[in-house]
């Protein structure tokens, strides 16, 4: 099995609350994140989101698909969402949000290992391609989220935009 430690930072010109809401609304990520084929709810979780479990299906730029479940383990609104992955990859993902003068800095840490033998082989033979693929998909996610949030302009009084409320955890 191969291990990967990815650390991605995005800057989003939107209030932290709006970014947090969009990230917690992962059932709708396929609307704006290219490469994300499907998200299915499995377990609802509590009122804070802890325990919520969803199945993600990604199609990589290299042509393979990844299927894994994410179970939310920690939430600190509006600064942190952390979850455990199991399936084709296993490990931990963490969204860390920080408010800045011009918007929100988003840091995503993804520490996973491959589970399927063919993935471990691919990673050993073509690790730079796997890393390139992850980085490309994260760039597309950043661009998609920026476009998604731009659909909800700020209120004239300077308050945040009118994102639809998240459907709850």
Structural class: alpha+beta
How many domains in all? Answer: 1
State the separation between the terminal residues, measured CA to CA. Answer: 33 Å
The tally of beta strands, per DSSP, is 7
Query: Could you say what the CATH architecture is?
Result: 2-Layer Sandwich
The radius of gyration computed from the alpha-carbon positions, rounded to a whole number of angstroms, is 16 Å
Query: Can you say what the CATH homologous superfamily is?
Result: START domain
Cross-sheet strand order for the largest sheet: 1-7-6-5-4-3-2
Average of pLDDT: 90
The proportion of residues in beta strands is 35-45%
Q: CATH fold name, please?
A: Alpha-D-Glucose-1,6-Bisphosphate, Chain A, domain 4
Q: Tell me, what is the CATH class? A: Alpha Beta
How many helical elements? Answer: 2
Q: Percent range for helical residues?
A: 25-40%
Summarize the biggest pleated sheet: 7 strands, antiparallel
The shape, in one word, is globular
Describe the protein in words.
- Pfam families: Polyketide_cyc2 (PF10604).
- InterPro entries: Polyketide_cyclase/dehydratase, START-like_dom_sf.
- This is Polyketide cyclase.
- With 169 residues, the protein is α+β, with helices and mostly antiparallel strands.
- The chain has a single domain (3-151), classed as START domain (Alpha-D-Glucose-1,6-Bisphosphate, Chain A, domain 4), CATH 3.30.530.
- It is 25% helix and 41% strand.
- The chain is built from two helices and seven strands.
- Strands 1-7-6-5-4-3-2 form a seven-stranded antiparallel beta sheet, covered by helices on one side.
- The longest helix has 34 residues, at 117-150.
- It is globular.
